[in-house]
Design brief:
There is one protein chain. By secondary structure, this protein is α+β, with helices and mostly antiparallel strands. Helix 10 (269-288) packs parallel to helix 22 (580-598). It is elongated and about 110 Å long. The model is unreliable at 103-114, 223-228 and 637-643 (pLDDT under 50).
Length: 643
């Protein structure tokens, strides 16, 4: 409660407007309408003068927009005695500024949160080999650092242990664990595996990879061009037209009252209220769909998106290695899988879990293994039902079996030998999401001209995934700064970028619209993004574009309706046929009509419902195709077993 009150105190104009409304309402209720009019009118004029001072400064700087129309509306409504309408404009004006300030403050806090996520402590090894915890900023080049199991590597360095297995997915986009040997370079931000390792620092924390990513995020956010509000584009011509009609009516009739009669029906409520209502409705609808849109300007950028860029790992794919193929020699594929899983279930290697999960998915019970020995960086050996099973790297299995395994054609493979004979291999890959291809097709139908993949993965794997997904442009083996450069140089704009890892944070910040897969992605990506998808479903990226387009259509319809009706009333008032009091009431009706129309953005249009149904069918078809392929594999396995 204290924080809420403190935030309110930061916006005294909002509080003062509410207080004046309460005082004026109380005076009206007690029958003292004259005093109420003076209190509200004097306050409204004061707000208009304050706003006019800021407006003059903006005009000198070359900026103009809805504020000019708001000041005009306050002055004209006070002049004709519609002081309550003037107070409503004051509230909308001050409330809008408060919301903008809140959004800017939120962006600053999110960047601060990214800084707070950086490693803070390092285990510095002394001459006696004993670790001492020190602030990560105290580590200098040449220091020996201990990284315990599952900790984040605090600084860039060179591995001094014999081997290490690191999860670098948040930095490079590589979903599979990366094996390193003594002398390899390690990046800060990577997550250590199940064994403690030692490294020698090659950079201070401020110069390490994680901090470079943070610097890129800050630079990207600072370089974003300011967004021009939708209402600002209509405000100036509408204001000039209203003045022209009012002055012309005065000059033709010779009656200065005509100015007030025209201006009272030229209030900017369709711009100040209706358009924000449409955007709020669109943002509310997005939230219900698991899509958190951080600002109304983002919806407009989504509606106009012409390029959609995607990270691969965890975005287009599941982000976890899975066994995609079993190649057996002399054994049924399912039997080979069970033998491999029987020894892998005792391994701490990250890929072992994928093998065990696939084997358990067959519905058969894993047999126990005896005399299991894990050789770091090579593989696992054990005895299963009296048979010696060796699972691991090609070179090691070749030594055990005397036969060289076939190449894996760019995919990650685990090779298997049984009783010193090569028995086959298991291919592991990061599988494409079932909804990926349907999402690309839906984006193209929505008007997105180009889809891109920006990934740190190898060229061969990236092109295979892109071909399956239906992506137009593939950029592989990219560092975070390369992704930023690719988005900045994209010819068709606006550009929306979808990602999920720490390495995606800079490019999400520099894109016109950054979309983070926040259900399982890194917090750094969510913090630097404009949109966060809270469910693990890539198709929501296409849904966000559709909602943005629907919101923009409704907002423009509301503005066109409000401005059109106001223009018609102005023309009638210019003839002297519409008294100011009647015009004020009619203008209230116009405002109500435009606001009610703006609320339509909370519902999907018929075209959207058709598109959603089509996308759902495409995803279901993709899943069915995969299940059918799995059934064919099972049939082949059964046939081999029968043979």
């Amino acid at each position: 409660m204290g924080t809420f009150v403190h935030r309110l105190l930061d916006y005294p104009v909002v509080l003062a407007t509410v207080a004046v409304a309460a005082v004026g309402g109380l005076l009206e209720a007690t029958g003292d309408g004259t005093t109420a009019r003076w209190v509200v009118s004097v306050y409204a004029v004061g707000v208009a003068l304050l706003q006019a001072r800021g407006m003059v400064a903006d005009l000198r700087a070359g900026n103009h927009g809805v504020d000019l129309l708001a000041v005009t509306a306050i002055a004209s409504t006070v002049a004709v005695g519609e002081y309550w309408a003037a107070l409503v404009v004051c509230l909308m004006l001050s409330g809008g500024e408060a919301l903008e300030d809140y959004a800017a403050g939120r962006a600053r806090r999110e960047l601060t949160g990214l800084l707070q996520n950086a490693p803070r402590t390092a285990h510095l090894l002394g001459p006696d080999g004993e670790p001492t915890d020190v602030p990560v900023g105290d580590v200098v080049v040449g220091d020996r650092v201990l990284v315990r199991p599952f900790e984040v590597v605090p600084v860039d360095g060179v591995l001094e242990s014999d081997d290490a297995i690191l999860d670098e997915s948040s930095l490079t986009g590589e979903s599979l664990p990366v094996e390193h040997v003594r002398g390899d370079g390690l990046l800060s931000g990577a997550i250590n595996g199940g064994d403690a390792i030692e490294l020698r620092a090659t950079a201070a924390a401020a110069d390490s990879q994680y901090q470079r990513i943070i610097a890129l995020v800050r630079e990207a956010q600072d370089s974003k061009a300011p967004f021009v509000r939708l209402a600002d584009r209509v405000a100036v011509p509408f204001t000039l037209f209203a003045f022209a009609v009012a002055v012309t009516a005065w000059l033709v009739s010779g009656d200065p009252v005509r100015i007030a009669e025209v201006l009272v029906v030229a209030t900017p409520c369709p711009l100040i209220i209706a358009a924000p209502v449409a955007f709020m409705a669109g943002m509310s609808r997005s939230a219900r769909a698991g899509i958190i849109v951080k600002s109304s300007g983002t919806l407009e950028q989504l509606a106009r998106a012409r390029t959609a860029a995607f990270d691969k790992t965890g975005t287009l794919t599941h982000g976890q290695p899975r066994v995609t193929h079993v190649d057996a020699e002399g054994l049924a594929p399912q039997d080979l899988l069970l033998l491999a899983a029987a020894v892998e279930q005792y391994s701490s290697h990250p890929l072992a879990e994928a093998v065990v999960e696939r084997a358990r998915g067959t519905g058969r019970t894993l047999p126990p293994a005896q005399d299991v020995v894990e050789v770091p960086a090579h593989g696992v050996r054990g005895t299963v039902d009296g048979r010696v099973v060796v699972v691991g790297k090609a070179g090691w299995v070749a030594q055990e079996s005397g036969a060289a395994p076939a190449s894996s054609d760019g995919d990650t493979s685990i090779h298997v030998a049984v009783d010193r004979r090569l028995a086959g291999s298991l291919t592991l890959a990061d599988e494409l999401r079932a909804e990926t291809a349907a999402t690309m097709a839906a984006l193209h139908r929505a008007g997105v001209c180009t889809t891109m993949m920006l990934t740190g993965d190898g060229e061969q794997v990236a092109r295979r995934i892109a071909a399956e997904a239906g992506i137009d442009d593939v950029r592989a083996e990219l560092l975070p700064q390369d992704k930023v450069a690719a988005v900045r140089s994209a010819p068709l704009r606006p550009v929306m970028m979808v990602g999920d890892g720490v390495n995606d944070a800079p490019v999400l910040a520099v894109a016109d619209v950054g979309i983070a897969m926040g259900a399982r992605g890194a917090s750094a990506a969510s913090e630097s993004a404009d949109v966060v998808i809270t469910v693990d479903d890539l198709s929501r990226a296409a849904r966000a574009v559709q909602i943005g387009q629907r919101t923009m259509r409704v907002a423009w319809q509301s503005i066109a309706m409000g401005v059109g009706l106001s223009v018609a009333l102005m023309l009638v008032a210019a003839t002297g046929s519409l008294p100011a009091l009647a015009g004020a009431w009619l203008q209230e009706a116009v405002d109500l009509t435009t606001i009610l129309w703006a609320l339509l953005a909370v519902r999907a249009s018929r075209a959207e419902r058709v598109e959603t149904a089509r996308m759902t069918e495409d995803v279901a078809r993709s899943r069915a195709d995969r299940e059918r392929a799995a059934t064919v594999d099972d049939g082949r396995t059964a046939a081999l077993r029968g043979a």
